[in-house]
Amino acid sequence: MTAALALSESFPPLSAAQGTLARLVGIGKTYGTGENAVAALSNATLDIRAGEVTLIEGPSGSGKTTLISILGLLLTPTAGEVWIEGQNVAGLGERALPGLRARNFGFVFQGFNLFPALTALENVAMAIQMKDPKAKSPKGEAKRLLELVGLGPRMHHLPADLSGGQKQRVAIARALGGNPPILVGDEPTAALDTKTALSVMELLRELASNAGRAVVVVTHDPRLERFADRVVRVEDGLIQAIDPVVHA
Asked: Which residue, 52, 59, 161, 208, has most beta carbons within 10 Å?
């Protein structure tokens, strides 16, 4: 069975497969006040669509991480609107945001963020249980997800016994817990060698194409553009361009 087929069978297309899963409208983020105010992001508008890989590129300090932090409901904007599940999140109370974030987003980070004393299986199972304390079989779901990302034979290994690419696949499996429609990666390939980085991006591409997910990745690496549908170019806190990627 090919990886693509396995992904397709493991995750049926989401109900909003052809639609916009998240929308940022006129987003701004300013730190400080008065003369000390610094605009990290200004007037950013972006749709995140199911089945697409969107790369966010730009120099360090350009506003990329601020953009995805606001998208992922980890940071509150000082201007603009964030729409998730067809609603403006500004109209929701603070208590509603953690549940909304857990239902809609899975996060993958550069540093893996795995618990060193837990096996790959235990790392993923714990994340599933934290998202849904009522989950019937966290370890069973964790096993399925690790097999999905190609780590079935290594599921009982500790992070110290895994390569960088294998750790990142564990992190992706963890992010998939609860079947969120949007995966957000903050430089998930930056700590990996070229071959491993491309392999991880290929997996993320398959998760978008075959499961109707939206994948949003911050990167400095233009070689990853081959896996994307769009490249959002950010500089000085502004979205300078949103370029479609033409695949031969």
From this structure: 208
User: Six-digit token pair at 223?
Assistant: 């070689």
Task: Give the tens place of pLDDT for each residue, 99-136.
Answer: 999 999 999 988 889 999 999 999 999 999 988 888 88
Q: What's residue 22's pLDDT?
A: 94
Q: What's the pTM value of the predicted model, to 2 decimals?
A: 0.88
The residue whose two tokens read 């370890």 is 139
Question: Which pLDDT score is estimated for 159?
Answer: 96
In order, the DSSP letters of 146-180 are: HHHTT-GGGTTS-GGGS-HHHHHHHHHHHHTTT--
Confidence category of residue 15, pLDDT binned at 50, 70, 90: very low
- Domain map (residue ranges) of the chain: 3-244
Question: How would you classify the pairing of strands 53-57 and 79-84?
Answer: unpaired
Reply yes or no on whether the pLDDT at 17 is more than 60. Answer: no
Highest mean pLDDT among 77-91, 131-145, 155-169: 155-169
